[in-house]
Amino acid sequence: MAESIRTFSLQWRILSLIIALLVYFPILSGSYFKPFNVSYDHRALIIAGKRRMLVSAGIHYPRATPEMWSDLIAKSKEGGADVVQTYVFWNGHEPVKGQYNFEGRYDLVKFVKLIGSSGLYLHLRIGPYVCAEWNFGGFPVWLRDIPGIEFRTDNEPFKKEMQKFVTKIVDLMREAKLFCWQGGPIIMLQIENEYGDVEKSYGQKGKDYVKWAASMALGLGAGVPWVMCKQTDAPENIIDACNGYYCDGFKPNSRTKPVLWTEDWDGWYTKWGGSLPHRPAEDLAFAVARFYQRGGSFQNYYMYFGGTNFGRTSGGPFYITSYDYDAPLDEYGLRSEPKWGHLKDLHAAIKLCEPALVAADAPQYRKLGSKQEAHIYHGDGETGGKVCAAFLANIDEHKSAHVKFNGQSYTLPPWSVSILPDCRHVAFNTAKVGAQTSVKTVESARPSLGSMSILQKVVRQDNVSYISKSWMALKEPIGIWGENNFTFQGLLEHLNVTKDRSDYLWHKTRISVSEDDISFWKKNGPNSTVSIDSMRDVLRVFVNKQLAGSIVGHWVKAVQPVRFIQGNNDLLLLTQTVGLQNYGAFLEKDGAGFRGKAKLTGFKNGDLDLSKSSWTYQVGLKGEADKIYTVEHNEKAEWSTLETDASPSIFMWYKTYFDPPAGTDPVVLNLESMGRGQAWVNGQHIGRYWNIISQKDGCDRTCDYRGAYNSDKCTTNCGKPTQTRYHVPRSWLKPSSNLLVLFEETGGNPFKISVKTVTAGILCGQVSESHYPPLRKWSTPDYINGTMSINSVAPEVHLHCEDGHVISSIEFASYGTPRGSCDGFSIGKCHASNSLSIVSEVKLYCLQHWQLIQSYEGI
Ligand code: GAL
Fold this sequence. Notes:
The chain is of the alpha+beta class.
């Protein structure tokens, strides 16, 4: 007996070893999948010989830190994504011509490997033009300096550089064995980006460029399909794909190509001074369901995680530092509920339909009413037997509809799709949100309270505690500050001088004012005026180091009254960029600073042509050049203690040290007390900040999901500062004494800066009899002759906290007709008085259960 146990255990060990080798070999050998090929037909991408219905999550790797990547990928997978999609950011990878950077946030290979090891696929959009609200659309600024270059057209110097970079990326991926045929996750690539939008501006050369880009890409032998989005003339062998808020009904330019949606805009970006966009989860789910309903097979959320425009990466002009995008994962990587959960349920329902969706070559259409329709997919299942799935849509924006389908009655809420994975039972309706809602709370940072702190009730009030009581200050010189300046007769274009190494460019000229001018002004008016035909993005005008005024705009006329004294005056113009243009034709010609004529008006002897004056130029700030924001260099500068009652001052550097908040919740700086500038933590550039108030009007008081979405619908935050919280990734923080440095342009109060943490502090769930049973109750459906009686399963509500948190109290529960929303509920006309105590007991059970798991794990 003992012998046989030993033999068995030996066999078992050998077997385990073989299993382990089989499981881990691909990973040890650097591959994540058994190598497979990808092709396509008119219906779908064909992965390892099988048509697939794919859901993709857009995540831009430099908009997060490498430390955040795994969690973002895991949450994408948990949310039902099969694929991750990203652009490749040329200006991040080749900041200086010929000098490549694939480190840190630009460690593309690492990002792709993490995707592979999570079992997801990757759609890599190389561009290399990307748009993306990214500085200069991803182009390195040095590209402008190549003689004779014209971007994105049939232009040899441009094509040469583009080919070099695209080849570099494809080779990098191939060398790291990251293509699917090598066992890696890359299943698809993209060349160019929405070139169709600008192609006409380039005439025949534009058309030739499209053909060249396609054949150049195909010539690289990457071995996976290439996409061109919004490109109706995409050549054969390149799939033209759709971008937009809705892409149902999109038809590619050939019957041999599948219907792909490369950018499903699930929210939108924000400009300084703009309101915050929100796309309702119900409408987004409707758009996605309609897409698969009408023949779509690959859909990517742009963005699934938007993240942050760290440093000076935000495009523009005037795009804010946050790139939250109202995406299912918020700027910090926390789930945005109910969007994340509702989409997860949607994806689960679509997955249940996949066998039928791929079995049919096209859906069968059935009209159910004037604004109601069904699309039915049926065919032979892969494992034998018949499969059938149906989508019932009500595109009426106002009214519910009762329809008959296959002999059964269905009620469809307005602007919704019901998904029937067995052509009979409704697994999901896009307008019925069963997922929890969560409201993010922003808490003042507190010292660690030990492990029990997570049981404490979330503090809803912002009880402010400021980051530091002790600040140092340093004045930035106004005007020319160093030897590396130069003088030139005439006004130079801003980017030609700065090469975008800094936002700032000083221009100084001397103006001599006669006694006659002074008496002329006394008689005719109080001053003279600087007048410039056209400028962007910020212009500050100084006379004798005193600020006369600032102008903000995008190619607007600048008119700034100035006052001179008799004799010599220094006229200083500071031009500033706030993100380079990232969209449109002829980007290389766009430039920054001034255009047209510049003059000084109001002089006795007529206007003074400033365009012809002699100007001394200086790029950037002294503090930038001295790198006083870094841990290594900040102490070399002559800081002095800032008095608490110091009056706000322009062009100041501030620094302090702070300890990070306890725990793992995302950290933000609240910079509401500041004016405008840039901030660094431990030398890491967290971005531009600007305490600008958003437009007063245009925000809807309520948000109705029904009807076509656009970025002006359901906006919030009108009349409030556009962005007050700035993400400081946890991995940039040390356990204590973190250096915070700010450059403040307009005057602010650093003593009121606070550090906070963000968490999903309030959770709500609502469910009614009209909700469908939870999707996990669906096993593999028995199609057509299904015997499952899933309708007898009651709907459930599930509440989940972010990692490290538990539900600490139930504040409201009502079985009845409660009113209000997650921000504040009230009891309706009908209410069961024991609701709260019953739900609280359930919660207590959860807590005990959770504690049990914790202590078990602790053993
Ligand atoms: C698209 C573009 C994306 C992004 C998006 C708006 O047109 O392809 O890169 O800019 O618009 O967020």
